[in-house]
Design a protein that fits this description.
Elements (H helix, E strand, L loop, with lengths): L13 E4 L26 E2 L5 E4 L2 E6 L10 E9 L4 E10 L3 E8 L7 E9 L4 E8 L4 E9 L7 E12 L14 E2 L4 E3 L5 E5 L7 E5 L5 E6 L1 E6 L4 E7 L7 E8 L2 E2 L3 E4 L4 H13 L8 H4 L21 E2 L8 E2 L13 E2 H20 L24 H15 L12 E2 L1 E4 L16 E3 L2 E2 H18 L4 H20 L22 H15 L2 H9 L6 H4 L11 H10 L6 H24 L17 H19 L2 H14 L53 H6 L16 H4 L3 H17 L9 E10 L2 E10 L9 E5 L5 E6 L2 E5 L2 E5 L12 E9 L11 E2 L2 E2 L1 E5 L1
Parallel strand pairs: 13-21, 29-38
Antiparallel strand pairs: 1-9, 2-5, 3-4, 4-11, 5-10, 6-9, 6-11, 7-8, 7-10, 12-14, 14-18, 15-16, 15-19, 17-18, 19-20, 19-21, 22-23, 24-26, 25-28, 26-27, 29-30, 30-35, 31-34, 31-36, 32-35, 33-34, 36-37
């Protein structure tokens, strides 16, 4: 943090006995959480002196050998001071080793100008210190800094009852919402819907214009008054310019003299968002160095929690006292969120959605696996012939399996719920500098079923890339399912929230449904199918897809989406039931999107935006995108795109919630290393990081101080200490990555026009199968030469072929025409065939591309 030279003791410093009551003062209190009853927020400390609350005090452990007072700091930012006003600072402090601290009230950035700079000896006896000063300048966000370094010995500094009073009462917090013309600040697909929102008290339609970057008018019209938007309590109009399909950058919309932020129209707007949203997971890996050559110098860091001092490591972790008598190597995985905890139930939904982002490319003809393939994403596992997105998923899957209770132990096969620090740590704190002991928390049924579901999905996706790892996954999934059936009601303690989130869940029927669905799809075994069909959730759309959205505590929809899209052995009626749930849920989300002035597919109960509301929006978009894949209905696609508009700026706050995307993007999300707001030497969050979004419950001190009385859609502040509205986490970025992949696959948003049709007929025999393929050119031009590509979702192997030259690399197959059928005339069909060897379940490929273009498909057996 900042370093400012001490200006000497100011007149008026007083020392009183620790038990003396502070003077009564009616002046406004500027310090938030000065008694630490709400934990450590919004206090911060330098990385070498982590803080925790002990006996009601904020205590920092300062290492030995610091040379200067400012080598270790505890502080609070965001203090508003008025020039000419008098202020009184008071606090009680102790130190296990006598030390002279410096207490500064100063600018929070260079040149660190001080309004108060004092030196004060602090010893083992608590004393009340009071300082007075008059502010020489106005400050919107000054800083209180206790500089506590400079001792040759290690010490623990504790402070309590911190108060800074004076000045005039600060005005009520008013968010800076910029222009009242709200649009997607990144841009709109060429042939997709294009709409925006105007905030205005006017009730008459207003003229709008769409202008190009050089100011040329491109289109115009009048707004449609929409009345009061209840979620934001704003009076709004809407406008639509979907008819404009001219690509370009720097477009703006102007209404009544008010201009929007600039945006683009084009076909290729979201490839970088897909890549950045997925890079988030490598950035937040535990147990591996984050390489500057991959992420850049500002984001590089040493491996965290590998047992290198001051870490106590995740490779030999004990349980909480009384939970177990063994230790586990639980290294690896992803840090869950802004803290350094790792949670099976949150990692479960996240890794499942990454795997489903890839699995979608196997069965959806508009999906492109190329950008997810080996060598495409920012991670170190290149050149292993495995799609990069699966390599990233594997990093978490291996951790999840390490959390399983070993054979021979009580509750063998169950999974521990979470692993995190014994006590909460402060911000900023790089993971390799975390000194807290790490602990395993008790196994739970929910965590065990998360393991069963994700490991089962792992088994079917990895069997064509690493058969041994796939077998390991399937074994873990089966043993976890068996353990969960034997212990169906071991629930997480909602009070177990010291050092990490509780993640408690008192209804695990959805986890049973999800796990049974994944095991059935992977094994084809009727026992798992019956578990799906017998579930009380099966066929109940509202139970499987809550209107508020899927979440780590509501995961049945993950199973239903895969049952609806991944080939299996459900009967036609059973498959229709599952797909009916998907489309019925999507109908509701699409209706929500169409009826709201901001277009978001999210209508929570009583309009109450929840913690992580943006992830709920994104999860509803996943359902909508899946329904579009299944049906081709543009209403579902359009609702996805309107939801993306909301996340990227068309919202009540005119805020893009994704770092690096849009003119007014979130960049101070709650995170212990991406903490530039607290330490300018540290980075802001990496591009593609999704903020949690409006949370009507405003649980954290910053939100409580500034957002009281906020309308639900306005309960957000881009402040690193507002963990209840501005946290980032794996289970918010996972659906963002799915959505970004889906939208990038849409291209310009125009419905795909297939110019080929493939009929794939396969017959099984005792030790193999014979397949006949017919490729019809449904376009109006000859195709010459032709090449048909597809990917097996299992371990089928082509042995011999006729009518085409066929090559196979892993699961990928290419068929090319031979001399006598090298051209396919319009309306003509070429035929070829092959024999092959199956392994386990055999699924016909669903996606065929003729010279790179997706074909319509018919499979026959």
């Amino acid at each position: 943090m900042g370093v400012a030279a001490a200006a000497g003791l100011l007149a008026g410093a007083l020392v009183a006995p620790a038990n003396a009551a502070p003077p009564l003062d009616e002046a406004p209190e500027l310090i938030v959480n000065g008694d630490f009853s709400a934990g450590t927020a919004p206090w911060w400390s330098t990385a070498n002196s982590p803080v925790a609350v002990s006996d009601g005090r904020l205590c920092a452990d300062v290492p030995a050998g610091t040379e200067n007072a400012w080598d270790a700091i505890v502080g609070q930012n965001g203090l508003a001071l008025t020039a000419g006003e008098g202020y009184t600072l008071s606090y009680t402090a102790t130190s296990t080793v006598p030390v002279t601290i410096r207490t500064n009230v100063q600018m929070a950035a260079e040149p660190w100008t001080t309004e108060l700079a004092t030196a004060q000896p602090v010893g083992t006896t608590a004393e009340r210190v009071t300082e007075t000063f008059t502010a020489a300048a106005d400050h919107d966000a000054a800083q209180l800094a206790f500089q506590i370094g400079g001792s040759a010995e290690a010490l623990t500094f504790c402070v309590d009852d911190v108060s800074l009073r004076g000045g005039t009462a600060p005005p009520p917090y008013e968010p800076d919402t910029g222009s009242p013309v709200r649009i997607n600040q990144v841009g709109y697909l060429t042939h997709g819907p294009k709409s925006g929102t105007l905030v205005t008290d006017g009730t008459d339609p207003l003229p709008w214009t769409l202008d190009s970057a050089d100011g040329t008018r491109v289109a115009g019209g009048t707004t449609v008054p929409a009345g009061l938007d209840t979620a934001s309590r704003q009076s709004v109009h809407t406008f639509d310019f979907s008819a404009v399909t001219t690509e370009g950058e720097g477009y703006t919309v102007t209404v009544a003299g008010e201009r929007s932020e600039p945006f683009a129209i084009g076909d290729d707007l979201y490839a970088s968002l897909r890549s950045d949203a997925l890079a988030y997971f490598y950035h937040n890996r535990s147990g591996i160095e984050i390489d500057a050559d991959i992420v850049g110098e500002q984001y590089a860091r040493p491996a965290g929690h590998l047992g290198v001092s001051p870490n106590q490591g995740d490779n030999d972790v004990p349980c909480q006292p009384g939970v177990c008598d063994y230790r586990l190597d639980a290294a690896g995985g992803w840090y869950d969120a802004g803290d350094h905890g790792k949670y099976v139930v949150n990692g479960g939904i996240s890794v499942a959605q990454l795997m489903s982002t890839y699995e979608r490319t196997l069965y959806e003809e508009t999906a492109d696996a190329g950008p997810l393939g080996d060598g495409e994403l920012r991670l170190p596992e290149h050149g292993n012939a495995t799609p990069d997105i699966l390599d990233e998923a594997r990093w978490e899957l291996e951790f999840l399996m390490r959390m399983q209770v070993p054979a021979g132990e009580p509750l063998a096969g169950m999974a521990h719920h979470k692993l995190h620090d014994k006590a909460w740590t402060g911000l900023p704190l790089r993971p390799d500098r975390d000194p807290q002991p790490r602990e395993l928390h008790p196994p739970t049924t929910a965590a065990t079923l998360n393991l069963a579901a994700t490991a089962a999905q792992c088994a079917r996706l990895f069997r064509v890339y690493d058969a041994d790892f796939a077998a390991q996954c399937l074994s873990a999934a089966r043993s976890a399912w068996t353990a969960a059936k034997a212990h169906p009601d071991i629930l997480a303690d909602p009070q177990d929230a010291t050092g990490g989130g509780a993640y408690s869940d008192d209804d695990v029927r959805d986890e049973f449904y999800w796990a049974a669905a994944e095991l059935f799809l992977t094994t084809g075994e009727d026992g798992y199918r019956q578990e799906v069909l017998r579930s009380p959730l099966h066929g109940d759309t509202d139970a499987v897809f809550p209107r508020g959205g899927m979440s780590w505590g509501s995961v049945a929809g993950l199973g239903a989406l895969n049952l609806a899209s991944v080939p299996g052995t459900l009967s036609d009626d059973q498959l229709a039931t599952v797909r009916g749930m998907v489309t019925e849920a999507a109908d509701g989300y699409a209706a929500d999107s169409a009826r709201t002035a901001y277009g978001l597919p999210y209508a929570p109960d009583d309009g109450h935006y929840v913690w992580g509301s943006n992830s709920q929006v994104a999860n509803n978009m996943v359902v909508l995108g899946s329904a579009h894949d299944l049906t081709g209905r543009s209403a579902y696609r359009d609702a996805v795109l309107r939801g993306l508009d909301y996340l990227l700026g068309r919202n009540a706050l005119n805020q893009s919630y994704v770092t690096g995307y849009g003119e007014r993007d979130s960049r101070n999300q709650h995170h212990r290393f991406w903490a530039n707001q607290l330490d300018p030497a540290l980075p802001n969050p990496a591009p593609g990081s999704l903020a949690g979004g409006p949370n009507a419950s405003i649980e954290d001190p910053v939100a409580q101080a500034k957002l009281k009385g906020c309308a639900p859609a306005m309960c957000y502040i881009d402040d690193i200490e507002s963990w209840a509205t501005n946290e980032i986490t794996v289970n918010w970025n996972a659906p963002l990555a799915w959505v970004a992949s889906y939208v990038d696959d849409l291209g310009g948003g125009e419905p795909a026009q297939t110019r080929c049709e493939v009929t794939y007929t396969s017959q099984r025999w005792s030790n193999g199968f014979t397949t006949q393929v017919a490729v019809k050119n449904t376009g109006d031009r000859p195709v010459q030469p032709w090449r048909l590509d597809w990917t097996f979702a299992d371990q089928q192997q082509v042995t011999d072929a006729w009518g085409a030259d066929i090559g196979q690399t892993g699961p990928r197959v290419t068929a090319e025409g031979v001399s006598w059928n090298a051209a396919i005339a319009p309306g003509a069909t070429v035929r070829f065939g092959f024999n092959g060897r199956p392994t386990g379940l055999v699924h016909d490929p669903q996606v065929f591309r003729l010279n790179g273009q997706a074909c319509g498909t018919t499979s026959r057996r």
